[in-house]
Amino acid sequence: MNLQYPYQFDDRGRTGEAGEEAYIRGLIEQVLFTSPGERVMRPDFGSGLMQLVFAPNSVELAATTQFLVQGALQQWLGHLIALDAVEVEAIESTLRVTVRYAIRRTGTSQVATFERGGALP
C-alpha cells in the first residue's frame, strides 16, 4: 500500500493511497525536507536541506546542496530510484531543487522540482 503524502483520507474516509509515481515523489520530498535528528527512530534520516535555506545564497551553497541531496537520495531511496541528475538553483531568496530519476521497478523517467524560501505570504 502506497500512502498519499501528505497523509490524507480518501472519499470513503479511509487512508488515501497513491500511485507508484506519486508515492515515490512524496518519499523524495520527505528525504529532502526532513532534517537529520527530526525522526526519533531514524536520527540520521534526511538531507539537511532546510538548514541551508537560511544560509546566504550563493553558487557555493547550490553546489553543496547538490551533493547533500544526491547523497541523501542515494542512501535512503537508492533501492527505489536511479538518480540521473540533481540540479540546484539559488535564485534570490529561493532554493530550487530539480531531481531527475528513473523508477527502478518500471524504468520510468521522472522529473520532480521542489522549492523553498522566498518571501513569506
Commentary on this structure:
The protein has 121 residues and is of the alpha+beta class. A 3-stranded antiparallel β-sheet has the order 1-2-3, covered by helices on one side. 31% of the residues lie in helices and 25% in strands. It contains 3 helices and 3 strands, in the order αααβββ.
The SSE string, one letter per element, is HHHEEE
Low-confidence parts, pLDDT < 50 over ≥5 residues?
none
Number of strands: 3
Structural class: alpha+beta
Task: Provide the spatial order of strands within the biggest beta sheet.
Answer: 1-2-3
Sheet of most strands = 3 strands, antiparallel
Helix content: 25-40%
Per the principal axes of the C-alpha atoms, what is the gross shape?
A: globular
pLDDT averaged residue by residue? 86
**Straight-line N-to-C gap:** 35 Å
Topology of this protein?
Elements: H1 20-33, H2 49-52, H3 59-77, E1 81-91, E2 94-103, E3 109-117
Antiparallel strand pairs: 1-2, 2-3
Helix pairs in contact: 1-3
Offer a quick outline of the entry.
Helix content is 31%, strand content 25%. With 121 residues, the protein is an alpha+beta fold.
Notable characteristics:
alpha+beta, three-stranded antiparallel β-sheet, 121 residues
